[in-house]
Amino acid sequence: MERMKITPEAYARKIDFIQTAMGEGAHLVFPVSKATGITMSKEAWDRIVDIGLLYHLGPETTGQSLAAMYKVTREAIRQTRNKFIVDLYENSSAKTKKKFPLETIILSKPVIQPQREKLSERKGGIAIKVKSLMQEEGITDSKVICSRLGITAAALRIIIKSGMFKEQWGLDLQVEGIRRSFKEVEDKVNEMTDDKELRKYLDGFSGPSLRSYIYRKDSTQTIFGSFGATLKKELGVKDNRYVRPVALKLMADGMPMRLLPGGIQKKDGHQYQKTYFIYFLKQKQRQIDAVKAMGSLKHNPEIKRLKEAKKA
């Protein structure tokens, strides 16, 4: 399924859904867990609704500001505001569900111009530096820009596709050499040994580019692997609910991995977004040893905490 673009129009559609669903009283119905059949408490649901409304309807409310307000991580806020949309959707009428398919409303909200530039500055101001090279120095050669700023072509493409770059600044650029050769990537990965360096390199790939390496037609690539597949095949963990908490624990311990969103899936009449944790295959045995060292995943307190955090 094609991924929805985060545009003001698409976001306005989500706001329309929230107002329609709440007009029906969908926010007054406590969600029931599909796994346990237990109805969520009023306190827990009120918290989810509060976070959902603050994030989706607050024009300048960000995941970071809510994380600071509730003293949780931005990932926890992301999960909570998505859960708000999903549960609100489940509580809605059939007419509303038909009018607003779930895959069209699970979206982040567009970032306004001042926030975009602040975010760019926090991340080293790369987008602003690209703008400066193009407008002030007249440089339009993507390879020169990448060389001057020390970034990959994939990273430059992400900047160019941003709303700030095209819509706000009116700039565009044809990027050459986005797709690095398989041999080039393999050699680069084999050279690196530092975990932080490997994680930075992994983050430099765009989602589509990373998928193109993972799902090669000849199935011979030896660079990237899916952690979920490794957990099942090598360690016999069949319960998918352990993939995310175990991966997050490994990432917290410094293992170079990356969460890669997948498509919207349907199961038992419900829709959800798949996610994959990508890692370097050369560290496969290291990952296996680290998971074994955790002992029983069912009784590991840290894994249990992370599983509960996902439900919250």
How is the topology of this model organized?
Blueprint: H1 8-23, H2 42-57, H3 63-70, H4 74-90, H5 94-99, H6 113-122, H7 126-136, H8 142-149, H9 153-161, H10 163-168, H11 182-191, H12 195-203, H13 207-214, E1 224-226, H14 227-235, H15 243-252, E2 257-267, E3 270-280, H16 284-293, H17 301-311
Antiparallel strand pairs: 1-3, 2-3
Question: Summarize this, please?
Answer:
This protein has 312 residues and is mainly alpha-helical.
What does this structure look like?
Helices cover 56% and strands 8% of the residues. By secondary structure, the chain is mainly alpha-helical. It folds into three domains: 8-104, no CATH class; 113-168, no CATH class; 182-311, no CATH class. It has a three-stranded antiparallel β-sheet with strand order 1-3-2. It starts with 7 loop residues before the first helix and ends with a helix.
Gap from first CA to last CA = 28 Å
Q: What characteristic shape results from the CA principal axes?
A: globular
Helices and strands, in order, run as: HHHHHHHHHHHHHEHHEEHH
Q: What is the number of helical segments per DSSP (H or I, 4+ residues)?
A: 17
Helix content: 55-70%
β-strand number: 3
Mean pLDDT: 77
The parts where pLDDT drops under 50 for at least 5 residues are 1-5
Q: Count structural domains.
A: 3
Strand-pairing-aware structural class:
mainly alpha
Please report which band the strand proportion falls in: under 5%, 5-15%, 15-25%, 25-35%, 35-45% or over 45%. 5-15%
**Largest β-sheet summary:** 3 strands, antiparallel
Rg value = 21 Å
- Strand arrangement within the widest β-sheet reads 1-3-2
